[in-house]
Design a protein that fits this description.
Blueprint lengths: L1 E9 L3 H19 L2 E6 L4 H7 L5 H8 L3 E6 L3 H4 L8 H11 L4 E7 L12 H4 L3 E7 L9 E4 L4 E4 L5 H17 L3 E6 L5 H13 L7 E6 H10 L6 E4 L1 H15 L6 E5 L5 E4 L16 H15 L2 H16 L5 H4 L7 H15 L3
Parallel strand pairs: 1-2, 1-3, 3-12, 5-10, 8-9, 8-10
Antiparallel strand pairs: 4-5, 4-11, 6-7, 11-12
Bound molecules: 3-isopropylmalic acid and manganese (II) ion.
3-isopropylmalic acid binds next to helix 5.
Length: about 350
C-alpha cells in the first residue's frame, strides 16, 4: 500500500520525536511491503517565522492531499509570556483541527506492565487501567466568541456548543464503547453550566438507542478525582474540549509519563496523529525527550487511517519491548541509565525490523 503522509514536526521537541516515529513507520513499511511517501509542512512558531502564519494555506493543502498527518507539537517560549502577541503558535494547531474538521480527539490511556511501579499513583489502582478519552476538539471555549471589553480590563471566552456537535461526538463515542467494554461516561458540569446541560440532555435522548451500552454521567470535578482514585472505572469517557484537555494531562500520570500518551484526531478530512504532550522547549535539541507518545501515534495512524492493524501492533509490541528492556528516556529512567531520544527510536525501529522480517 502507498501511504501519503504529511509530516508536520512543528516546534520544540516536535522534530526529534517525529523523526523517531518516522523510523518506526519506515521499519514497518519495509517489513510489511508498504511505501511511505512524506511531504514536509510547517505549523506553529516555525510557520510564523517562515510565512507569518501559524497554519499557512500551503500546509493546509498538503494535509488535504495526504492520507494522514503525523504531527509533533507547537509552542515557543517567546510567545508564552507575551499575552499581547497577535499571532500565536497554538493558533496553528487550532486552525488545523478546525479546517480539517477534526472534531474528535481519541486519547487512549493504557498502562504498561513494566511501568506500573513508575506511576505516581498506587500500583493496584493503575494496574490494568485501560480506557479511551474522547475529547471534543473543534467547539467549546477554544472556538467560541472571545474578547476584551472595558479598555481591556474585562475578558471573556464563550463555551458554545451546537446540538449537531454534541450528537456527532456522542455517536462516535457510543460506537467505540460498543467495540470495547460497553460503558460510556459522559463528563460535564451540568450542575452549573448551560452548555453542559445541553450535553446531558442530548446524551439522555440518545442513550436508549444504545441499550447494550451502560451510560453514566459524571461531573468533571468528580471525574478528575476518580481518575486518580479509581481509573479502572472508566471504559470510554466523552467530554467537551477544555475538560478533555485538562483531564487527559491528568490521566497521563496513570501510565507514568506525559511522554507515553498518543492520540488520533479524526473527523471530516485527513486525520492527524499527535502526542498529547506539548513542545517542551527546555528539552528541544537535547536528545532527552521521550519519543514513545509520537511512535504510538504512528501506530494509531496505521490502525485508524489505513486499517492496517498488524502494522500498528508491530509498533506497539516494539514499544512494550523497549519499556521492558529499560530502553527509556530520562523521564522513565528512575535515576537509572537513560537513553537518548534517537537511541530509543533506533532500538524500536530495529526491533520492528527483526521481529517482522519477512
Ligand atoms: C493539546 C495541547 C493543545 C490544546 C494546545 C497546544 C493548543 O495542549 O493538544 O492538548 O490545548 O489542545
Ligand atoms: Mn493539552
Amino acid at each position: 500500500m502507498k501511504l501519503r503522509i504529511a509530516r508536520l514536526p512543528g516546534d520544540g521537541i516536535g522534530p526529534e520525536v517525529v523523526e523517531q516515529a518516522v523510523k518506526a513507520v519506515d521499519a514497518v513499511c519495509a517489513s510489511f511491503g508498504h511505501e511511505a511517501e512524506y511531504a514536509h509542512g510547517f505549523v506553529g512558531a516555525c510557520a510564523i517565522d517562515r510565512y507569518g502564519d501559524p497554519f499557512p494555506e500551503e500546509t493546509f493543502r498538503l494535509c488535504m492531499d495526504s492520507d494522514a498527518v503525523l504531527f509533533g507539537a507547537v509552542g515557543d517560549p517567546k510567545y508564552d509570556n507575551d499575552p499581547t502577541a497577535k499571532v500565536r503558535p497554538e493558533q496553528g494547531l487550532l486552525a488545523m483541527r478546525k479546517k480539517l474538521g477534526l472534531y474528535a480527539n481519541l486519547r487512549p490511556v493504557e498502562t504498561f506492565k513494566s511501568l506500573v511501579h513508575k506511576s505516581p499513583l498506587k500500583e493496584h489502582l493503575v494496574d490494568g487501567a485501560d480506557f479511551l478519552c474522547v475529547r471534543e476538539l473543534t467547539g467549546g471555549m477554544y472556538f467560541g466568541e472571545k474578547g476584551r471589553r472595558d479598555d481591556g480590563d474585562t475578558a471573556y471566552d464563550t463555551n458554545l456548543y451546537h446540538r449537531y456537535e454534541i450528537e456527532r461526538i456522542l455517536r462516535l463515542s457510543y460506537d467505540y464503547a460498543r467495540r470495547r467494554r460497553r460503558h460510556l461516561t459522559v463528563v460535564d458540569k451540568a450542575n452549573v453550566l448551560e452548555s453542559s446541560r445541553l450535553w446531558r440532555q442530548i446524551a439522555q435522548e440518545m442513550a436508549p438507542q444504545y441499550p447494550d451500552v451502560t451510560t453514566d454521567y459524571m461531573y468533571v470535578d468528580n471525574a478528575a478525582m476518580k481518575l486518580v482514585t479509581g481509573p479502572k472505572f472508566f471504559d470510554v469517557m466523552v467530554t467537551e474540549n477544555t475538560f478533555g484537555d485538562i483531564l487527559t494531562d491528568e490521566a497521563s500520570c496513570i501510565s507514568g509519563s506525559m511522554g507515553l500518551l498518543a492520540s488520533a484526531s479524526v473527523g471530516e478530512h485527513t486525520s492527524v496523529f499527535e502526542p498529547i504532550h506539548g513542545s517542551y522547549p527546555q528539552a528541544a535539541g537535547k536528545d532527552i525527550a521521550n519519543p514513545v507518545a509520537t511512535i504510538l501515534s504512528a501506530a494509531m495512524m496505521f490502525e485508524y487511517a489505513f486499517g492496517l492493524m498488524d502494522e500498528g501492533k508491530a509498533i506497539r509490541e516494539a514499544v512494550a519491548a523497549s519499556l521492558e528492556a529499560g530502553v527509556v528516556t530520562e523521564d522513565l529512567a528512575d535515576g537509572g541509565p537513560a537513553y537518548g531520544t534517537a537511541a530509543v527510536g533506533d532500538w524500536i525501529a530495529s526491533y520492528i525490523s527483526e521481529k517482522n522480517n519477512k
